[in-house]
Amino acid sequence: MTTHNIKEYLPLVRRPSRYIGGEINSVRKDPAEVSLRFAMAFPDTYEVGMSHLGIQILYQVLNSHEDIACERVFAPWKDMEALLREKGLPLVTLESGTPLGEFDILGFSLQYELSYTNVLNMLELGGIPLKAGERGEADPIVIGGGPCVFNPEPVAEFFDCFLLGDGEEAVTEISEAVIEGRKNGASREEILKTLSGVSGVYVPSFFEAAYNDDSTVREVKPLFPDYSRVGKRMAPDLEALPLPVRPVVPFPRTIHDRLSVEVSRGCTRGCRFCQAGMITRPMRERSPESIVRLITESLKNTGYEEVSLLSLSTGDYSCIEGLLCSIMDRLEKERVAVSLPSLRVGTLGTALASEIKKVRKTGFTLAPEAGSERLRKLINKGIDEADLIRSAEEVFSLGWRAMKLYFMMGLPTETEEDLAGIVRLSKEVKDAGRRARGGRGEGGGRRRGGAPEVNVSAATFIPKPFTPFQWEPQLPLKTSVERLQFLKRESRKRGLGFKWHDARMSTLEGVFSRGDRRLGAVIEKAFRAGCRFDGWSEEFDWEAWNEAFSAVGVEMAFYTERRRADDEVFPWDHLDPGVTKEFLLEERERSLSVEETPDCRVGPCTDCGVCDHKLIKNRLFADGPDRGDGEGKWKKRLAVEERSRVRLSFSKTGEMRFLGHLELVKAVSRAGRRAGLPVCYSRGFHPLPKIAFSPPLPVGVESADEYMDIELSVPLSVEAVAERFNAALPEGIKISGGRHISLQLPSLSAIMRAQNFLIFLKNGPAGLDIEPKRLDGILRDFLDMDSVVLHLDREKKRKEVDIRPLVGEISHVGDLTISLGLGIENGVSVKPHEVVAHILNLPAEKASLIPILKTRTVF
Asked: CA separation (Å) from 658 to 4, 63, 197, 560, 648?
């Protein structure tokens, strides 16, 4: 069965738009014209993976190489996995529908330890042996990257190699090495030996682990004398890297549904719990000019309505205020919002908040991390409580109603007083919000609106490799649960929202964070027991994991609850992110003495071991971009609006039939932005484009006659609107005509009376074969009925609907094709599949597989 066939079954799965591909800026190359095919895999759902900036960057980097074709694949949700297994189909990529086993390289992004069972599932569904040692010469090289690879030992036997650190330059070098090896007939082992010479590449099969009688690691022994320690790959200057200005624009709504722009990489704050801050050193900033160019070009190429400025702490970017003012001068006019998702307390000022709120208030999240001044000093967070309260007052005074606060519990030396401090501090933030919202507004009037909301989020602290706390124990599960219950109870008493991370999931994450190769058997056992999407609370199966650990004979507590000796050999000691073990030990001692370590950006060098102060060093930009140029590019342009309204007809066919209505709205709205159409926007704090659609089609139904109304601030001819729209719309959506209409005309949903459909019984996977005369008789019998009452699902409720008055016409027009006219009566409607399921006595699932084309909308 071909890939085309699986797409015919997409009406049977949740969110079918996850699996169709064809997004704006996606790249499809002819396999015959490239030397290497690279499948980039993310072991979670499409909407999670497409929110990850690293995937977007590397996809563009690889596809810019004329000899490399990079394609994407994501973990199929459980319904799609079941469908693939039932039909005997492999997991394939979005771009070409090629099974994973046919690629030269399969690269996994390992962002989270609880995605490991998904990795095994994707390998198996892709037709690739799970273990590296069992793969043959024709199998792809399986490589992992991301933060988890700084201790990849629990999954070492499933990967051929890992890439530590920055990937933009390394992925091309890896690909070229594989191209050269395959061209010269090199064996798999020879190619891996070549790859071990690429800076940042770790080949786990070239090392052997040995253990002491007490189960601690005795050594991780290198098998080659010239390959004993693997250092991370580093891009010393972000300015030297290509600007990723053509990110793929997803059809489904993703976790972070916006344009993400990296303003800097690395962090020098030195928070002692933060693995990301340690393994990404030093701080490297992108120039303001490059950021402005990146935003400008990317918005033209995507049509996004929000820009997110990313780094480990965006407020620390050395010229953030100048940059934000410059880009907001233009983005405000274009109704593009800006968010700073990683602000640090103390870096948020009134100027930043005022700029952010110009288009829409995108939300504020602050991370105090701990509830007491002592504990924040111990972790080197460097947050002053007064700064947090002042930041809260500023945010709430500018009109925000809600704020999120992130905390960890179970930090080293935490006391009951520290724990209670989380609730106390959060309540003080809420009180600050009440004071601010009860004060005077910007115009001098009394402020109105509801009480401020403060939502507290807490998670169990997990000691990570390459941090000063890597020697420390993690809270036992029972203690974690008790402390979370305390926080939940006390927070709700004080009117605070409270969310928490499942303590069992934190325990499992802690095991794999500091685990060794013996855990590979546990992961495979859990996978065989059906564990998938372990990072999703509704899918997490604690009992299955417990049984897997018991079956293998491994204790979780050995990896989580045990304090390590200073001289213990860690499973990851042969890997090197740059920071030295001596520095980390010194930082641990300073933490226990509650001594703070200054930020080396502004203070003296802390001698962490990363920088050589020549090529590898902190790179900052002290001055912001020019507020304008000779052409007034960044100056706000005011225009007098002369509104007009255009009604456009369009078709929605092919893969686009699998877009839900909200996905269609987003795709068309972003196409309008890419086309540069002067669309009007609603007013208020969350402006939306004034584009209205006819009532939604069921997912999976094609249409040759859909409608939308679009309001323009500058008059344009219908022909100009259609031409510009069609140049920007994805394949499968096409404007076919239109006309100018009055601004006062009622909406499309108010005037639509009926819809006509063609139903193709013989086509598609349902494959119905009904004798034509019998079909004619079935349709006559239906038309002879006065009433046909069905129980239909509507808005998560079961309703009785008499569908007979809604069926205006139904007839057999030849070749087992039914012509169906459906009306709307008192706001009640019926879907064509529901009619077909009833008249042919079919299960709803089978009826949903019948191809249907909407031919006409009746007003």
From this structure: 14, 27, 46, 45, 21
**Helix, strand or coil, per DSSP, at residue 345:** coil
Q: What's the alpha-carbon Rg for the chain, to the nearest Å? A: 29
Q: pLDDT: is 211 or 390 the higher one?
A: 211
CB proximity list for 713: less than 8 A, separation 6 or greater:
639, 641, 642, 643, 678, 679, 680
| Torsions phi, psi for 569 (to 5 deg) | -80, 125
Sign of the CA dihedral 649, 654, 655, 659?
positive
747-789 pLDDT tens trace: 898 898 999 999 999 887 877 889 999 999 999 999 999 999 9
- Chain CA centroid to CA 146, Å: 14
What is the residue whose two structure tokens read 């010469």? 137
CB contact at 8 A, 434 and 238:
no
Q: Which tokens go with 173? A: 């070098």
| Residues paired with 430 in a beta bridge | none
From CA 318, how far away is CA 546, in angstroms rounded? 48
pLDDT at residue number 841 = 93
User: What 8-state DSSP symbol labels residue 65?
Assistant: S
Confidence of residue 5 (pLDDT cuts 50, 70, 90): low
- The Cα 472–Cα 485 span in angstroms is 23
Residue-level pLDDT at 342: 64
Q: Using the 8-state DSSP alphabet, how is residue 797 labeled?
A: E
From residue 737, alpha-carbon distances to 413, 431, 644, 711, 718 in Å are: 69, 56, 17, 16, 8
In whole angstroms, what is the distance from residue 253 CA to residue 274 CA?
Answer: 30
- Residues facing residue 315 across a β-bridge: none
Q: Give the closest residue to 50 by CA, choosing from 24, 68, 29.
A: 24
- 3-state class of 81 per DSSP? helix
Which positions ≥6 away from 122 have C-beta within 8 Å?
41, 43, 73, 75, 91, 100, 108
Q: What is the pLDDT of residues 655-686, one digit of tens each?
A: 999 999 999 999 999 999 999 999 998 876 67
- Token pair, residue 734, equals 């096409």
Query: What DSSP string runs through 781-837?
Result: HHHH-S--EEEEEETTEEEEEE-GGGEEEEEE-STTEEEEEEE-BTTB---HHHHHH
How far the first Cα of the chain sits from its last, in Å, is 42
Q: For residues 122 and 641, give the distance between their C-alpha atoms in angstroms, rounded to a whole number.
A: 53
- For 632, the 3-state DSSP assignment is coil
Q: Hey, how many other C-beta atoms are within 10 angstroms of the C-beta on 368?
A: 24
Could you identify the residue written with the tokens 């729209």?
725
Distance separating alpha carbons of residues 38 and 105, to the nearest angstrom: 5
* Mean model confidence pLDDT for the chain: 91
List the structure tokens of 358: 């110009």
Q: How many C-beta neighbours within 10 Å does residue 829 have? A: 18
- Band the pLDDT of 142: cuts 50, 70, 90: very high
| 352 band by pLDDT with thresholds 50, 70 and 90 | low
User: Which tokens hold the place of 651?
Assistant: 């078709």
Separation of alpha carbons 686 and 360, rounded Å? 5
Residue with tokens 């700064």: 387
Q: Is 168 in contact with 139 (CB distance < 8 Å)?
A: no
Global pTM? 0.91
Within 8 A by CB and 6+ apart from 356, the residues are: 324, 337, 338, 339, 340, 362
| Residue 558 banded pLDDT, cuts 50, 70, 90 | very high
Distance (Å, rounded) from C-alpha 121 to C-alpha 524? 10
Q: Residue with structure tokens 């001594």? A: 595
Residue 555 per-residue DSSP state: -
